[in-house]
Inverse folding.
């Protein structure tokens, strides 16, 4: 018999990034965040997807309830973003994200998905829907995986 799983939740939040306007500096700041988050999330068995759209961040983090709470408390205090607001926090039946920390940004390859989701105007109004963030993150993950030829493993 399979062992009973501990309670699994996902938390979806959005925020405004306090990153440099200089592209090189911004890339290195995002690199720092990625390194720290990847390491911590691997240790805490958290899977996540961070969407970056202009100066907004929107992230789905999933894992065991206590780990998510501890991680979110740390994220919310990080000075590299502000106005951190939770959109949704609920129990989930299974994980939907594969990586400990993955980022999706708007570029020529992902533009169609970003445009279809139309998240930016919602972020600008301060009222993004959790479902819109979630489905864009799922779409970006699926797109990245199919480009790597590994999508068939996750059907
Ligand atoms: C937009 C954004 C997303 C982040 N995502 C995560 C994350 O998923 N997991 C995590 O541990 N830290 C994340 N961080 C970094 C944390 O805020 C924090 O800096 C890091 O966990 C190290 O914490 P410590 O310095 O207190 O050890 C994120 C930071 C930002 C700005």
């Amino acid at each position: 018999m399979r062992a009973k799983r501990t309670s699994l939740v996902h938390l979806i939040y959005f925020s405004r990034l306090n990153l440099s306007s200089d592209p090189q500096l911004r890339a290195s700041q995002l690199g720092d965040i990625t390194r720290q988050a990847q390491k911590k999330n691997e240790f805490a068995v958290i899977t996540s997807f961070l969407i970056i759209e202009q100066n907004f961040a929107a992230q789905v983090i999933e894992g065991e309830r206590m780990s998510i709470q501890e991680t979110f408390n740390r994220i919310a205090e990080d000075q590299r973003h502000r106005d951190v607001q939770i959109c949704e926090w609920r129990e989930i039946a299974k994980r939907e994200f594969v990586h400990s920390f993955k980022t999706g940004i708007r570029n020529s390859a992902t533009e169609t998905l970003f445009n279809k989701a139309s998240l930016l105007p919602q972020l600008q109004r301060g009222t993004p829907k959790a479902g819109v963030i979630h489905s864009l993150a799922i779409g970006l993950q699926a797109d990245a995986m199919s480009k790597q030829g590994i999508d068939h493993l996750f059907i």
User: Anything to note?
Assistant: The pocket of flavin mononucleotide is lined by residues 33, 36-37, 40-41, 48, 50, 57, 59, 61, 71, 74-75, 78, 80-81, 101 (CB under 6 Å). Residues 81 and 142 are 27 Å apart (CA to CA). The chain has one domain: 8-148. The longest strand covers residues 81-91.
